[in-house]
Design brief:
Elements lengths: L13 H12 L7 E5 L3 H9 L5 E5 L15 H13 L4 E4 L2 H11 L3 E3 L20 E6 L10 H12 L8 E6 L4 H9 L6 E4 L4 H10 L2 E5 L13 H8 L3 E4 L6 H9 L2 E4 L2 H16 L8 H4 L4 H15 L19
Parallel strand pairs: 1-2, 2-3, 3-4, 5-6, 5-8, 6-7, 8-9, 9-10
């Protein structure tokens, strides 16, 4: 932790951004101001600029409701204080999940609305669905020991191998991530070197083709303060790929559950028995050549156009009198005064 980069590395440009906001708003051309954080320094700059128009603070990640990996003992209290003092000036809140939005709205007694991240369906138009030479699970992203940790999956796969439900030739688990020593040690500890491979990062275009060839797309969750409200951005890339997800671990309830349920795009498991069951299901689907593709209509609510439509409704709801309000838009929850 370093005070010179608190609350984030962009802290140094707060006074310049605040001045630029004040200067721009003097033109009188704007009805509403929208910020999206992180970086949280953007929120501080807006608060210091004291905008004369409504401000909607969008939070793609939690601010004070998590414990960062580099946390020091007093950081949670300091974050909560700064969050409250900064965001009390906002007219409304949007956030990347409904539980996260509720955290801000209820604490500050302001309107709030959950608007998830999204994917651009057009990016996937020329990416074909394909099949690998064995049932393939794919994870493309960072891993963190003790947080985003594949050990529960490895344990379930080891169990299936030991009881003879699957063989080493039936399954491939491919990671596209930093080849950390602890990850290789974990693979070896479970005796899965013939199944699990760690590859270097690839270009986004390559990863998109890899994901459309997968039988399952992996997601690893952790159980900690604020984790129930977090929907990793990887979820929306996977929705674009339209291959089924297997989310492993996490809290009893996770906002990820809502996305998986509404999109019919996957399953979350929290114990070895359930994990083994889902791995075996995927292998059997592959054996029977019936690997599923998620229906386009099921993932359509998470496309970028829908995200924009919801933001339009929230922005119009806080506009000064006379601003037209869009019809057929999701309601903004307002708390009683």
């Amino acid at each position: 932790f370093n005070l010179t980069t608190y609350p984030d590395a962009q802290v140094g440009w707060i006074p310049y951004l605040a001045g630029a906001i004040r200067s721009e708003l003097k033109s009188g051309q704007y009805d509403v101001l929208l910020t999206s954080a992180p970086p949280f320094s953007a929120n501080i700059a807006v608060a210091l600029s004291n905008p004369p128009i409504p401000w909607v603070a969008d939070m793609r990640d939690p601010w004070a409701n998590t414990v960062p990996i580099d946390s020091f003992p007093l950081r949670p209290q300091l974050d909560r204080f700064l969050e409250f003092r900064t965001l009390q000036r906002a007219a409304a809140f949007t956030a990347a999940s409904q539980p996260m939005a509720a955290h801000f709205g209820r604490r500050l007694r302001k309107p709030y609305h959950g608007i998830t991240n999204a994917f651009d369906a057009r990016e996937w138009n020329d990416v074909p669905f394909d099949t690998a030479d064995r049932c393939t699970f794919v994870y493309a992203g960072q891993l963190y020991r003790g947080r985003l940790d594949p050990s529960p999956l490895f344990s379930a796969v080891r169990r299936l191998l030991d009881v003879g439900r699957i063989g080493a030739a039936d399954l491939a688990i491919d990671f596209y991530c930093t080849p950390s020593p602890w990850l290789r040690e974990t693979i070896e500890r479970y005796g899965l070197s013939s199944i699990v491979s760690v590859h270097a990062f690839r270009s986004r275009e390559e990863i998109m083709h890899i994901e459309r060839r997968a039988d399952r797309l992996l997601l690893f969750l952790w159980d900690g303060l604020g984790s129930d409200a977090i929907i990793p951005g990887k979820v929306f890339e996977y929705l674009g790929a339209r291959r089924r997800m297997l989310a492993v671990s996490g809290p009893v309830y996770s906002a990820v559950d809502d996305v998986l349920s509404h999109s019919a795009a996957g399953t979350r498991v929290r114990d070895e028995t359930a994990t083994a069951r889902e791995v075996l299901l995927a292998v059997n689907e592959y054996r029977e050549r019936r690997t599923r593709i998620v229906d386009q209509q099921c993932v359509a609510p998470y496309e970028a156009r829908e995200m924009a439509r919801q933001f339009d409704g929230v922005l119009r709801s806080v506009m000064p009198a006379g601003g037209a309000v869009s019809t057929n838009l999701p309601p903004v929850v307002r708390l009683p005064s």
